[in-house]
User: Which sequence fits this backbone?
């Protein structure tokens, strides 16, 4: 989210400096319209491209500037989550096993364009010492921007939890910017190495990550569908698929009805209504020809703290341009609406709860659809394993 600019209490901007401030999204067209009308200025159109030039030509008074400053919103950036797992080989609790000298600032490097705010630390979730979380904030500086946008603040979170049988630990990484995403990756690497050095994790154990190459083409679509139109969850009720992205498979010959994609389509994004009924998703016999990398769907939900509707995006972000098979799977709730009866419930708490439930379900489906050890799903290959029958994909999850 955009940070409040430095020295905002010491200056009264005008001209281009004022333009840089009122162009920010936390100041709406209605706010600028109100400021102009309080001066007796009425325009035929009140969109920001129309009102900003007029205000830039004026000198704002201190009271008017203070009113616009109060429009600064503290809207959170949309959190995205990734999960990783590794086998656990210790009787220690996670709270006992974490490093005592946790210092996130040491992970940023000497030339990072951001800094850690405060001294983040792990705390137990409730009273469970095998379920711990570390929340952190960073401040990013970008001197290529104007004075009003030089600094931005972003939140991140790393949650570590043992499975019920204590055999595995799960890292859930939540980020709101590339910087918090990168910091979380370094954070997990550091914790994993610490656990190995102290015998909590065996040295030969490897972190398991959901990446594009964890599936062949058919299993990947089956995985996506198990999270959307074939979801089997007491919390989520599927409504419709509204968005998906795919690339045609270039390493195999396309059937005649798909030849229009050959040599002319490298990336195909579709937005619409009830896309689960299109042949791209419904036609199982076409799945081996597509590299699906994203899908978004609408759901109704009813959790322990609220009910309403939401839109959830599942994706391998940035796959299309480079066809990088090591891209990690992400989940985010792109929109959330609560029922009237839950209007007082904190939306951030609802998002956190829903993401936790989604990630638990996602991991169960990953175990079901991932390629077995020793197999590979390199981009350009789409041969199902001997135990995988495509016609079974339509069976209820």
Assistant:
């Amino acid at each position: 989210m955009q940070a409040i600019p430095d020295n905002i209490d010491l200056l009264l901007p005008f001209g281009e400096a004022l333009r840089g401030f009122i162009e920010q999204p936390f100041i709406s067209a209605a706010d600028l319209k109100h400021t102009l009308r309080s001066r007796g200025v009425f325009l035929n159109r009140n969109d920001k491209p129309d009102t900003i030039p007029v205000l830039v030509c004026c000198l704002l008074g201190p009271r008017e500037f203070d009113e616009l400053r109060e429009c600064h919103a503290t809207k959170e950036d949309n959190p995205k989550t990734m999960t990783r797992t590794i086998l656990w080989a210790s009787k220690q609790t996670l709270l006992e096993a974490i490093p005592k000298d946790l210092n996130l600032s040491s992970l940023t490097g000497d030339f990072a364009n951001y800094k850690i705010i405060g001294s983040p630390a792990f705390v137990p979730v409730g009273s469970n010492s095998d379920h711990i979380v570390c929340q952190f904030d960073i401040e990013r500086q970008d001197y290529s921007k104007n004075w009003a946008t030089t600094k931005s603040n972003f939140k991140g979170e790393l949650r570590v939890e043992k499975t019920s049988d204590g055999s595995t630990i799960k890292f859930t990484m939540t980020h709101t910017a590339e910087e918090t995403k990168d910091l979380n990756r370094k954070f997990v690497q550091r914790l994993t190495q610490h656990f190995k050095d102290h015998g909590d994790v065996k040295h030969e154990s490897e972190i398991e990550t959901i990446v594009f190459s964890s599936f062949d083409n058919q299993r990947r679509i089956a995985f996506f569908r198990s999270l959307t139109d074939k979801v089997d969850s007491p919390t989520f009720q599927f409504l419709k698929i509204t968005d998906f992205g795919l690339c045609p498979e270039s390493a195999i010959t396309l059937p005649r009805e798909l030849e229009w994609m050959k040599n002319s389509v490298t990336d195909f994004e579709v937005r619409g209504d009830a896309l689960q009924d299109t042949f791209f998703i419904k036609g199982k016999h076409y799945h081996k020809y597509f590299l699906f990398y994203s899908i978004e769907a609408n759901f109704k939900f009813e959790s322990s703290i609220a009910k309403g509707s939401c839109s959830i995006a599942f994706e391998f972000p940035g796959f299309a341009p480079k066809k990088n098979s090591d891209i990690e799977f992400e989940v985010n709730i792109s929109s959330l609406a609560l029922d009237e009866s839950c209007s007082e419930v904190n939306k951030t708490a609802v998002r956190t709860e829903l993401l936790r439930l989604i990630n638990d379900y996602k991991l169960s489906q990953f175990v079901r659809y991932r390629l077995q050890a020793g197999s590979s799903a390199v981009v350009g290959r789409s041969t199902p394993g001997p135990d995988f029958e495509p016609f079974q994909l339509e069976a209820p999850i």
